[in-house]
Amino acid sequence: MPLPAARLRVADLAGLALSATCLIHCLALPMLLLLAPAIGHWVALPERTHAAILTLALPAAVAAMRGGWHRHRRSAPGLVAAMGLVLLALGLAAHEGSLAGIDPAAADRLFTSAGALALAAAHIANWRLSHRRPRH
C-alpha cells in the first residue's frame, strides 16, 4: 500500500535532514575543530552519534523510497539510497576500528560523507519524481 503524499514528503524531508546532519558532523565539525581547538570540549558529540544517525536514516530511507517507488515506479532513487546506507555503515565500521588496514578517521569521513551525499541525492530525486506534475 503506497504512503500518502504527506507522509512521503515527511519521510523524504527526514532523510534530507539526516543526510545534512551527517555532512555537518563529518565535514563542518572537523573543520571547526581544526580552526578552534578550544571549542572541542563544548562541541564534542557522543561516541554513538554515527550509530544513531544510521539507525534513524535507515527507516526514513526505506519509507521514503518505498513510498516514492509506489508513486513513480523508478528504482534509481532506491538503489542510490541503498548505496548511501551501505557507505554509512562502512563509515560506522571505520569509526569503530572494524576495518583493518585503513586509517579509521579518514575512512570514517570518506565513507560517511559519500553515504550522506548519496542519501541526499536519492531523497532529492525521489522527491522530484514523486511530486512532478504530469505532462499533458
Describe the structure.
Helix content is 78%, strand content 0%. The chain has 136 residues and is mostly helical. It is elongated, with a radius of gyration of 16 Å.
Summarize the structure.
The chain has 136 residues and is mainly α. 78% of the residues lie in helices and 0% in strands.
SSE inventory with pairings:
Blueprint: H1 5-35, H2 40-43, H3 49-72, H4 76-95, H5 104-130
Count every beta strand, where a strand is a DSSP E run of 2 or more residues: 0
Broad structural category: mainly alpha
Radius of gyration: 16 Å
What is the count of distinct domains? 1
Helix content: over 70%
Instruction: Quote the distance from N terminus to C terminus.
Output: 27 Å
- Overall 3D shape: elongated
Q: Give the percentage of residues in beta strands.
A: under 5%
The mean pLDDT is: 81
Name the poorly predicted regions: none
H/E series: HHHHH
Number of helices: 5
Mind summarizing the main beta sheet? Answer: none
